[in-house]
Amino acid sequence: MFNVSIPNSGRKSATEVQLKVSQMGVQVFDGPQVIDSYLYANLSAWEFKAGKRLLVLQIAAKTAGEQSPATGRAGSSKAKTKEFACTPFDGAQVCKLMTDHATTMMKQQRSEMKQHLLHLRGKYTVTTLNGVLMRGHASPESFKVGIIANSEELEVIEAVLTGGRTRLHAIGSSIHMDDGTRQDVDGWISLKNAADTPLVEKSDA
Length: 205
Hints:
With 205 residues, this protein is α+β, with helices and mostly antiparallel strands. 16% of the residues lie in helices and 45% in strands.
């Protein structure tokens, strides 16, 4: 726990608070009460400005409008910063702890995602009535191979995350297409559509 203060404008004195650095983010305490919290995932950067003796947290623009646990009010939708006055030693320590925890968390998340993608390999059945669109590459903008008909079974040999969507590299022999033909396929499909509805279901789980 670090003793810091929140600078106030005008002639008001700074507000003394306590800063706790945890594995997930930073919490601001006023005695026993949590008055604010910042997850590493919602911060775009942090630094200690030695000349001003200020610890500066930069809040990512997409989360700047979230509610404060203390007031319940939403802030500005624009990116903003939070400043805390502290000693150079404490400022350096806070930044180091935040960086260490954020790096560890990022490595863990990447490892978990890698294991998740590996687990997605296997046999799948198309579950949508209109079939599932297959493209030539992982990019959802690549050329179209065709539409795999409902109830057809595919073998997924690879999975990747691209553009926030899970894409599956699928193959199959004599697959029934929506145009009535059958063909061998080798391409990429989406696990879910934009509405988060599954397009295929794993059949060998």
